[in-house]
Amino acid sequence: MDSVDEFADHLLRIARASPHTIRAYVSDLRQLAAYLSPAGKELDTADRDDLRGFLASCYGRDQPATLARKQSSLRAFYEHRVRMGRLDDSPARALVRPKRRRSLPNVVSVDDVFALLETPGEGPAGLRDRCALELMYGAGLRVSELVALDVGDFLDGTTAVRVRGKGGKERVVPLVAKAREATLRYLERRSELGKSAPTPALLLNQRGGRLSARSVARHLARYALACGTQRHVHPHALRHSFATHLLDMDADLRGIQELLGHASLSTTQRYTHVSSERLVQTYENAHPRARRRT
Question: Which domains does the chain have, with CATH numbers?
Answer without folding.
Answer: 3-83 (1.10.150), 110-285 (1.10.443.10)
